[in-house]
């Protein structure tokens, strides 16, 4: 009898364990199925979130912006750095919404046949996807930094991306900055911020030019340099026709501060600050005006000079920074 009772108890225990195991496995299957359903739902919601919020995907934006009037034109300043020019043109001609490239040429001799053939070939090679990017040379007889802001009569876009030949930004960053500019097309939108400061000695009519480190330390800026910035083409006309001649002569003579003058011009019209866009910059050149001695002091002199010419300080400080949240995890 004891053996039979033990046998029955063992069978009952095995049955209970088997039922518990079946129940546990079933529960795990249900949980796994539930997790799969939740994951699939999240993926669908993520893909459709832009529709729910009235937004569109980046690809859709590019497709709808294929009209050249909705694109932008590059105005590139260069000076006897043909290798850098070739690298820059080769890179930027790949950007999706680029409509045209205008090379500001202020050298004594016109572009060589070999250079023009090479650049034409590169642009054609990089725009085989149906786009038609124009490449033009704006030839200037006089060597002046004011040439980079001369009015261009045949621009097909409202947006101008002013860029030096020795700096490279990923096309994704340029396209994002263009989107930001479209939301505030009267102001300047750029990658290189700078600041002006009132003289700490107490002279309210004297200002100090603040370089990158002052922006990094305070998070405040009042200018974005035209070495990498978007602005409306109307400012080319205003700079050419309405900028005080004394300022343009000062810039030509000193070979500096045309970018500060453009910041003054835009701020004087808008009474608003520019917009700094976060972007990774690649410096492909080793020389430039900023590497010369006394650069900051000269820029400070320019700020004071322009304040006197404009009759006021139009620059507006801000701490706003535009960041593409699609490319970062924490924001």
What does this structure look like?
It comes from Pyrus ussuriensis x Pyrus communis. Helix content is 46%, strand content 16%. The relative contact order is 0.11. Residues 1-6 and 40-68 have low confidence and may be disordered. It is built from ten helices and 13 strands. By secondary structure, it is of the alpha/beta class. It is globular and about 80 Å long. The strands form three sheets. Strands 3-2-1-4-10-6-11-13 form an eight-stranded mixed beta sheet, with helices on both faces. A three-stranded antiparallel beta sheet has the order 8-7-9.
Briefly say what this structure is:
InterPro entries: GT64, GT64_dom, Nucleotide-diphossugar_trans. The protein has helices at 2-52, 58-64, 82-92, 113-126, 171-183, 212-218, 234-242, 245-254, 258-270, 295-310, and strands at residues 72-77, 98-105, 134-139, 159-164, 167-168, 189-190, 193-198, 207-210, 223-224, 228-232, 275-277, 282-283, 321-322.
């Amino acid at each position: 009898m004891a053996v039979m009772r033990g046998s029955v108890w063992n069978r009952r225990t095995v049955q209970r364990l088997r039922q518990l195991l079946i129940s546990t496995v079933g529960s795990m299957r249900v949980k796994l199925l539930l997790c799969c359903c939740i994951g699939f739902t999240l993926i669908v919601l993520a893909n459709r979130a832009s529709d729910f919020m009235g937004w569109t995907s980046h690809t859709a934006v590019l497709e709808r912006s294929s009209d050249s009037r909705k694109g932008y034109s590059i105005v590139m300043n260069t000076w006897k750095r043909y290798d850098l020019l070739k690298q820059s043109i080769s890179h930027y001609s790949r950007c999706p919404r680029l409509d045209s490239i205008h090379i500001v040429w202020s050298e004594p001799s016109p572009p060589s046949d070999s250079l023009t053939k090479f650049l034409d070939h590169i642009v054609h090679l990089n725009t085989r996807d149906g786009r038609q990017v124009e490449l033009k040379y704006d030839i200037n007889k006089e060597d002046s930094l004011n040439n980079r802001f001369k009015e261009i009569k045949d621009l097909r876009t409202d947006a101008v991306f002013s860029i030096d030949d020795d700096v490279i930004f990923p096309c994704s960053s340029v396209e994002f900055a263009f989107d930001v500019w479209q939301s505030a097309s009267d102001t300047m939108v750029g990658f290189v911020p700078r600041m002006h400061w009132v003289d700490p000695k107490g002279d309210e009519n004297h200002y100090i030019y603040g370089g990158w480190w002052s922006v990094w330390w305070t998070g405040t800026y009042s200018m974005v340099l035209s070495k990498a910035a978007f602005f409306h083409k109307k400012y080319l006309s205003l700079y050419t026709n309405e900028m005080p001649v004394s300022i343009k002569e000062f810039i030509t003579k000193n070979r500096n501060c045309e970018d500060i003058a453009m910041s003054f011009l835009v701020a004087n019209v808008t009474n608003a600050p520019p917009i700094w866009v976060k972007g990774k910059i690649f410096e492909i050149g080793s020389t430039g005006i900023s590497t010369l001695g006394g650069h900051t002091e000269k820029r400070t002199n320019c700020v004071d000079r322009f304040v006197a010419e404009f009759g006021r300080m139009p620059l507006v400080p801000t701490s706003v920074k535009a960041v593409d949240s699609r490319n970062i995890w924490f924001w």
